Amino acid sequence: SKPVRHIAVVGAGYVGGPTAAVIALHNPHIRVDVLDKDPRRVRRWNSPHLPIYESGLIDIVRVSRDGASTCLRATADKPHQSTPTNHPPNLFFTTDSQTSLARADVVMLAVNTPTKTFGIGSGRATNMTTFDAAAKEVALYARPGTIIVEKSTVPCGTAQRVRKMLDEVRPGVDFEILSNPEFLSEGSAVRNLMQPDRVLIGSAKTPSGRRAAEALANVYAAWVPRPRILEIDAWSSELAKLVSNAMLAQRISSINSISAICDRTGADIDEIAKSAGLDPRIGPQFLKAGLGFGGSCFRKDIASLTYLSESLGLPEVAHYWSQVNSMNEWQRDRFAQKVIQRMEENLVGKKIGILGFAFKKNTGDTRESLAVDVIRALLQERPAEIAIFDPCCLSEDIMSELEPVLNATNRERVHVYSDAYQACQQANAVVIINDSDPFRQSPAGQFIEPSIDLSAKTKNIPYYDNSIRNMQYMASKQEGEMVIEGSRFSYRPGQSPICAEDCPDCQSTKLRG
Ligand code: NAD
């Protein structure tokens, strides 16, 4: 197969940005252009403060975006840090899609594919508007012979859909379409990309399909061991992605359903999860009872799998998987009701602190935050204030995610704080939504109760002292834990990993590329 010299990644989001950065890092001879139609996003990718927070991402971006020499300067205070030398700048973020698409050997489509909220399949089917628009742009500007890669999670049969569109827009021109779903997990994206469990490449079973798959496999082989690169057919590849997410989410709903039994019987859900997880056939991951799964992927991918099953005339299969989402919603409602009942069903005049808003720890991604439904239920009880703190989230992202539950009367009751102690000052209850590291200090990522560390902290924060006196800790060992009458949690104030939206550094950085 022909060597790849130029890659264009369409969509500089949670998947497109980090994936492009890691490909560029390991393939210094390939130019990687990341395209986004949002100029603000592009500007931030070109600035010292990236638009998304992922541990280790900035270091990789510095090497491939700015070249290794810049990177060495930037890390002069850490001389022990090993940085690749002579890495040319080969990662570019730009809004100029036409130029980049016209020179690309490979185009990866990494745009968002949310659930459809209208018409046929509403609430289940994938809304393909954004994906189709991006594919059409590729069809218009790409060179003949370009390999088009589905990086986004798409419904089965999308490769055929793209093929049809290409045939309409550019009749008679040869394009190969591959499915190459992404399995990274937010919060550990860089680690997942650097050491992937597997890379799936789905192609047409034709000689040209196989050649295209081989060309993409060679890009990954720069750092991924060959046995982990699986070349399969496009349908299997598209379906495999949905199945992985559905199975992970299923474990969470399963353990949460058992947590409801534990609540009634007094059995300990953590002990049960531990015991089940020690069986090597089950394994310990994704067995932590809590508020359930949030984020932009699990719910939508299960909905997509449900819709696929329905479309294939398999209602039993559709029902089976849709229960995973139903259980997830029920668990959140159950938790919100528990908080309200615990407060004697009277929240009027009270302040509730909300710690954690991102859909899980170590990410700033607020999409499908678990806090939203909890806050919706709490607001119905007319508390005086909902005080939110998350060390990784931008306040504007939090407020825009909450938009659907806000109205003229309750809006002024919701505030986002940049300091955990202020959010909890004189709170009547504090609800911990996610297990963000600052809220839980645990040795090995193991779930523990909020640590009780009253020593040094209290001296500097007089108001905090007051609330501690009548503190009462309710241990419901679940994530989405609640602390009544004042807060007890250990919080390490430190620099927030993300900068404010109006950060002068980012604003002043000129658009490159
Ligand atoms: P995202 O919303 O963070 O990023 C998508 C980006 O695409 C946005 O910046 C948007 O402005 C841009 N975009 C949309 N249309 C465009 C166009 N025509 N031209 C240029 N840019 C355009 O989404 P994401 O979280 O990165 O997810 C992307 C896809 O990857 C989805 O299909 C998702 O299901 C899948 N996925 C996501 C994750 C995850 O953890 N977020 C993991 C695996 C797979």
TrEMBL record:
NAD(+) binds at D36, R41, T113, T153, E186, K300, R367. Its EC number is 1.1.1.22. Residues 353-449 form the UDP-glucose/GDP-mannose dehydrogenase C-terminal domain. Substrate binds at F183, L184, S185, E186, K241, F286, L287, K288, A289, G290, G294, K360. One of its GO terms (cellular component) is nucleus. The active site is at C297 (nucleophile). It comes from the Eukaryota. GO terms for biological process: glycosaminoglycan biosynthetic process; polysaccharide biosynthetic process; UDP-glucuronate biosynthetic process. It catalyses: UDP-alpha-D-glucose + 2 NAD(+) + H2O = UDP-alpha-D-glucuronate + 2 NADH + 3 H(+). Pathway: Nucleotide-sugar biosynthesis; UDP-alpha-D-glucuronate biosynthesis; UDP-alpha-D-glucuronate from UDP-alpha-D-glucose: step 1/1. Keywords: NAD, Oxidoreductase. GO terms for molecular function: NAD binding; UDP-glucose 6-dehydrogenase activity. Belongs to the UDP-glucose/GDP-mannose dehydrogenase family. This is UDP-glucose 6-dehydrogenase. The lineage of its organism: Eukaryota, Fungi, Dikarya, Ascomycota, Pezizomycotina. The chain holds residues 89 to 601 of 654 of the full protein.
